[in-house]
């Protein structure tokens, strides 16, 4: 039995033609940018998009410019046929699946330069990452001209970077963040979870547990720095190589020392064997 798949288009021109036919009918358009290997977290972005728009375009593009030469670009999972089926199941209307030459034609020479929420955290470990993300997201937004675009809170710094970029460049799009979908034991769904060995998979939920414990302590009045230090110890004791675990202002991502300074987000990145995991939680007021 053949499954239903969403229609893939591979060129900007085909994408624009399809979007234009929806636009003349007055239909609102949502873009869900992804790198494929779709899972339930991506499908939640499509579901959330359908609350705001009649039409949903999922882009599937493993963007080389956001990977450093030492990172996992070549082994990043690529599962196009299954992705097209999952996108259809979630209710998407079209998949935009450009190749590298379509996105970066010969002579491509433009990169978006960032500061504000792009400073620190991921940037300390992936210095060129957000320039690559921002540039490709800007291109996708210009190509699809959606009314809204959905981004997961799982990549919380990315969500703030893209929100800031869209505001700063007067892009006529609303950026919407979607809460992180988790496995029952708390591990955030991620395409990279397939890299985890069974033993590592058992340890991985420690990240969420450590962040959640720190968030509860801070909400209960504990000192922010002390709670963060305890969470760091928990993560290290579980066998992770900690990249960062920090308390930041939830919107600007500037360092923050007390809840009186604004809403707090706790963010972590840590390496477990060959797999780098990220996660974050809000600190309820
Ligand atoms: N568990 C999740 N819950 C909500 N959104 C998610 C989740 N996982 C990914 N997303 C969002 O889906 C979009 C596409 O992400 P991407 O294709 O990189 O998947 P990923 O699972 O985050 O992969 P990776 O392991 O490479 O980070 C991003 O906006 C991302 O934040
Ligand atoms: C937003 C994105 C699709 C840009 O390549 C990517 O960074 C991702 O999947 O989160
Ligand atoms: N979801 C973020 C994409 C990346 O890590 O490159």
Automatic annotation (TrEMBL):
The keyword Membrane belongs to this UniProt entry's keyword annotation: no
Subcellular location, principal: cytoplasm
Record keywords: ATP-binding, Cytoplasm, Ligase, Nucleotide-binding, Pantothenate biosynthesis
Signal peptide: none
Active site: 42 (proton donor)
Keyword Nucleotide-binding: yes
Cellular localisation: Cytoplasm
Catalytic activity: (R)-pantoate + beta-alanine + ATP = (R)-pantothenate + AMP + diphosphate + H(+)
Alphabetized InterPro entries for the sequence: Cyt_trans-like, Pantoate_ligase, Pantoate_ligase_C, Rossmann-like_a/b/a_fold
EC assignment: 6.3.2.1
Annotated ATP binding sites: 35-42, 152-155, 181, 189-192
Positions annotated to bind (R)-pantoate: 66, 158
Binding site for beta-alanine: 66
Any Pfam family the entry gives: Pantoate_ligase
Molecular-function annotations in GO: ligase activity
Subunit details: Homodimer.
NCBIfam families, alphabetized: cyt_tran_rel (TIGR00125), panC (TIGR00018)
Function text: Catalyzes the condensation of pantoate with beta-alanine in an ATP-dependent reaction via a pantoyl-adenylate intermediate.
UniProt similarity note: Belongs to the pantothenate synthetase family.
HAMAP family given in the database record: PanC (MF_00158)
Other comments on record: The reaction proceeds by a bi uni uni bi ping pong mechanism.
Name listed for the protein in its UniProt record: Pantothenate synthetase
Source species: Ancylobacter radicis
Species classification: Bacteria, Pseudomonadati, Pseudomonadota, Alphaproteobacteria, Hyphomicrobiales
Gene: panC
């Amino acid at each position: 039995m053949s499954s239903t798949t969403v229609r893939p288009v591979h060129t900007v021109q085909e994408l624009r033609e399809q979007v234009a036919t929806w636009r003349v009918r007055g239909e609102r358009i949502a873009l869900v940018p992804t790198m494929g290997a779709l899972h339930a977290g991506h499908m939640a972005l499509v579901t959330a998009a359908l609350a705001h728009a009649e039409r949903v375009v999922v882009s599937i593009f493993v963007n080389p410019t956001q990977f450093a030469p030492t990172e996992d670009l070549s082994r990043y999972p690529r599962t196009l046929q299954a992705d097209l089926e999952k996108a259809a199941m979630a209710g998407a209307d079209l998949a935009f699946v450009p190749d590298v030459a379509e996105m970066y034609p010969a002579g491509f020479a433009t990169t978006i330069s960032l500061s504000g929420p792009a400073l620190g955290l991921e940037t300390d470990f992936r210095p060129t990452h957000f320039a690559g993300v921002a540039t490709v997201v800007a291109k996708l937004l210009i190509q699809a001209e959606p009314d809204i675009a959905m981004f997961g809170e799982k990549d919380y710094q990315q969500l703030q970077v893209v929100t800031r970029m869209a505001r700063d460049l007067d892009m006529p799009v609303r950026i919407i963040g979607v809460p992180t979908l988790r496995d029952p034991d708390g591990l955030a769904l991620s395409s990279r979870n397939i890299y985890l060995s069974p033993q590592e998979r058992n340890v991985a939920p420690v990240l969420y547990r450590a962040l959640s414990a720190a968030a509860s302590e801070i909400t209960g009045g504990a000192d922010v720095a002390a709670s963060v230090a305890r969470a760091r110890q928990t993560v290290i004791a579980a066998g992770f190589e900690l990249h960062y675990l920090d308390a930041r202002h939830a919107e600007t991502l500037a360092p923050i020392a007390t809840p009186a300074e604004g809403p707090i987000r706790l963010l972590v990145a840590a390496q477990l064997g060959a797999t780098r995991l990220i996660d974050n939680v809000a600190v309820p007021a």
